[in-house]
Amino acid sequence: MARRLLWASLVLTPATLVARFAFDADATTLFVLSALALIPLAWLIGEATDHAAHHTGDGVGGFLNASFGNAPELIIGLFAIADGLTTVVRGSITGSVVSNILLVLGAAMIAGGEGKVDARSLRLQLGAVFAAVVVLLVPSIPGWRGGLSVRTLALVSIPVAVVMLLGYLAITAHNLRIHREAERGEVPATAWSLTLALAVLAVATVATALVSEVLVHSLTDFGKAVGLSEFFIAVVIVAIVGNAAEHGGAVVIAHRGNTQLATEIAITSSLQVAVFVAPVLALLSWVVGEGLALSFRVVEIATMAAAAAFATFVVWDGRSRRWEGFLLVAAYVGCVAAYWFAG
Questions:
Q1: What long-range pairs does 321-327 form, CB within 8 A, spacing at least 24?
Q2: Which pLDDT belongs to residue 57?
Q3: Which of 194, 218, 250, 238 is nearest to 69 (CA)?
Q4: Alpha-helix runs per DSSP H in 85-149
Q5: Helix (H) or strand (E) holding 320
Q6: CB-based contacts of 106: which residues, under 8 Å, 6+ apart?
Q7: Which domain holds residue 309?
Q8: N or C terminus of the chain: which is more exposed, having fewer CB within 10 Å?
Q9: Three-state SS for 256?
Q10: pTM of the prediction?
């Protein structure tokens, strides 16, 4: 019954787009419609990734889910940069890294309960996230001290972005090689073909990008109506909505008993935001805008580093436990509180 409802609710996607472009509906209506439309899209991406993982293995499956899931965030970021909303972009990057590590990983552990995780892969990726946060101190510390223009900070961010991208390519190649060497089980007869799974992933990603764009453009007016700061909207709401695909997909997959794939999705998504989406946005920002400075606030650097360190401790032994998931979610709530007061 639930699956039928999810399939049927995919009609919310065209309904949202019609409301936005044909009827120019108000911000509140668009916010509600687009938020609801992202739920079945997140499920569909998780469903397609689960089928693709039968052919590729859990590690590559997690990489695929994170890649397709982060595509909308990259597109949304470019739209925001073009509109001059660089604070929103930086906030959403921070929120994405922290929410994937703490909220999504925690929710996956809660949904999946006791299970095994690939500690070697997760430790490597979390270590890379922590290293990326350290590298981000280069343009961030001058921003804290003041005295440098935004354009100068954006120029300083260019070599930092290049280094991060090179590191991401090296880590991804190494991690995929590890997973290719791992043994894969037999493909079930009910599994979709790899071609069909990838096609569904592509279509769902495009739809998610369109719906997310509508939601983000309605968030500012919605935030003003409820009295939320621009920073809090970006670091919490935009981040969660922009990563709805990974959030929903990881939890659904964990609930089905595949905790290993679910944890790969959460951490790989965080890694991709930190060392791929952020530097790519910084480089492409010169094409669509006036440059994006990777200069983050103290609270942003602190929460990203703390999230990576705490999650590394949790997954170190290669086991998933439900109580550890609750701890991760509680840590995320603490970060949200910090964002609220820093807003």
A1: 321/109, 321/113, 321/114, 322/109, 322/110, 322/113, 322/114, 324/106, 324/109, 325/105, 325/106, 325/107, 325/108, 325/109, 325/110, 325/111, 326/106, 326/110, 327/106
A2: 67
A3: 250
A4: 86-98, 105-112, 119-135, 137-145
A5: strand 319-320
A6: 324, 325, 326, 327, 328, 329, 331, 332
A7: 60-181+231-342
A8: N
A9: coil
A10: 0.82
Contact between 252 and 112 under an 8 Å Cβ cutoff? The reply is no
The answer, yes or no, to whether residue 287 has pLDDT greater than 80, is yes
Q: Which two tokens stand for residue 6?
A: 């999810």
Confidence label for 303 from pLDDT (cuts 50, 70 and 90): very high
SS3 319: strand
In-domain check, residue 71 = yes
Within 10 Å of residue 256's Cβ, how many Cβ atoms? 14
Query: What was the pLDDT predicted at 157?
Result: 94
Higher pLDDT, 182 or 84: 84
Q: How sure is the predictor about 19, in pLDDT bands with cuts at 50, 70 and 90? A: very high
Whether 295 is in a domain gets the answer: yes
Report the C-alpha gap between 171 and 175 in whole angstroms.
6
Convert 266-277 to b/e letters by CB count within 10 Å (16 or more is b): bbbbbbbbbbbb
| CA atoms within a 13 Å half-sphere pointing along the CA-CB vector of 233 | 21
pLDDT tens readout for residues 57-114: 666 666 666 667 677 778 778 878 887 888 889 999 999 999 999 999 999 999 887 8
Look at residues 99, 94, 51, 72 and name the one whose alpha carbon lies nearest to residue 261. Answer: 51
6 is a domain residue: no
The tens digit of pLDDT for each residue in 315-339 reads 998 888 889 999 999 999 999 999 9
189 in any annotated domain: no
Q: Tell me the C-alpha distance between 45 and 201, whole Å.
A: 6
Q: Would you give the DSSP letter of residue 116? A: E
Query: What does the radius of gyration of the chain's CA atoms come to, in whole angstroms?
Result: 19
Read off the pLDDT band of 299 (50, 70, 90). very high
Instruction: Report pLDDT for 328.
Output: 95
Domain at 143, CATH number: 1.20.1420.30
3-state helix, strand, coil split of the chain in percent (to 5) is 85, 0, 15
